[in-house]
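Q: What would this chain look like folded?
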Amino acid sequence: MLGDYRIVGRRASDIAASIERGVGSGDLEPGQLLPPMRELAVELGVNPNTVAAAYRTLRERGVIETAGRRGSRVRPRPATTAREAIRVEAPEGVRDVGKGNPDPALLPPLGEALAAAAHRAAAAPVLYGQAPVDQDFARLARAALDADGVPDGPVAVTSGALDAIERVLSAHLRPGDAVAVEDPGWAAVLDLVPALGLRAVPVAVDDDGPLPDAVARALRDGGARALVVTGRAQNPTGAAVGAARADELRRVLAAYPDVLMIEDDHGHGFVDLPLHTLCGPTRRWALVRSVAKAYGPDLRVAALTGDTVTVDRVLGRQRLGPGWVSGLLQRAVVHLWESGAVDPRAVAAAYAERRDALVGALARRGVRAHGRSGMNVWVPVADETATVARLLHAGWAVAPGARFRTATGPGVRITVSGLAPDELAAIAATVAEPGGPAGAGGYG
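A: My prediction, written as C-alpha cells:
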C-alpha cells in the first residue's frame, strides 16, 4: 500500500510526524491510501486509539483526508501548499495584472486618519480590559449594515476578511465537516478550508453568483454544514448576487436552517451595486466587510456581524489569541468613514470603466469574459498554460485560473487596476490571438 515507505512511532505525535515526513519528502504521494487504523496499530504494536489520534491530528493539519469506509488518503493537494504559490512572477519589463491589488491612486492617504487616531489615543489610550470594539466603529459599521438590510446582530472587528471567515468556521465546525465554496472562488478560502481539516464542496457560479441548484446539491448530497458566498465583486469572476438570485438562494437556505451561512462583502466601499444579503434564513450566520480594497490592504481591519452565538464565540476565541484588533486602526477607519475620504461611486465608476472596456474589447474579438463588479475580469480559456505563457511573452503577467478553481474549467484572471485604455486594448488583442480562447474553459 505504501511501497517502500515505513511508518514508525509508538506515540500518536510520532506516528503523525512520520507520515508528515513521508508527505514532505514525496515518499507518500498526493492521493496515497494510508493503512486502515487497526492494521497500522497491529503493525506498530500500539492501541488503535493511538493511530486514530495520529490520523485526527493529520486531518486537522490538512495533511490527510478521510472518506468513511474508503479510508484515509494523503490530500491531493497538501494544505501547506498555498494556491497563492500558483502565480506568474513578472520579470523586469512585464506588467503585472495578476495580483488582485486595488489601484493605489484610488486609495485615500492615511496620514490624517492615523494622526487623528493617535491624537485620540493620547487622550484616551486603549488599555487591557477594555471593550475590543471601538464604540464609534461599531456604531458606524452597524448603521451601514442596517442600510443594506443585513439582519441585526452585534459587531466584532477582525484582522481582515479571511481572519473573520477562519474564526467563524472554527467557531462551529470540526475537522471532517464539509463547506460549500464558490468555484471558481477566492484562492485563500480554497486553501483555508482544508487547512482547518474541513472538506470543500465546490459550487458553480455565474455572473449572478452561486447557482441555486448547485448550492442545494452541496447541502443535500455533499453534506455541507456551511456555505461561503461573496455578495459582490466576487474573486475572480466579478459576480454579484442580484435580487432574484438572492431570493432563490434564500429559499434554498430556508430548507437547511442549521447550515452556517458566511457572506463576504469585501466589495463594500468600492462597488456601486446593491448588496442582496443571504443572511437571515439560517440560525447561524455571519457577514464580514473588510476595508482592504476601498481604503488599503495594510489597514487589516474588517467589521464582522452575525447571530449572537457566532459573534460571541469569535470574540471569546479572539480574546485568547491577539486579544483585539488595534484600537488605533479602528479609530483610523472611523476617521476615514466620517471624513468621506472615499467616494464609493467614483471609485466604482473608475473600476467599472476599465472592466467594461476590457470585457468589451474581448467581446469585439470574439472572446467572452466576465466582470460584473469589482476590479477583476475572468476569461475562460481552452488552454490555461498556453494562454498564460503567451501573455507573459507579450509583456503581461496574469493570474492562472488554477489558483481559483476546483471543478470548473480553465481560465485566467486579469486585474484592471491602474490599466490605461490603450493597455486594455493591447491585452485584449493578445488574449484573442490565434490559439487563444475558443469558447471553452470554465464558466463561459
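The chain has 15 helices and 15 strands.
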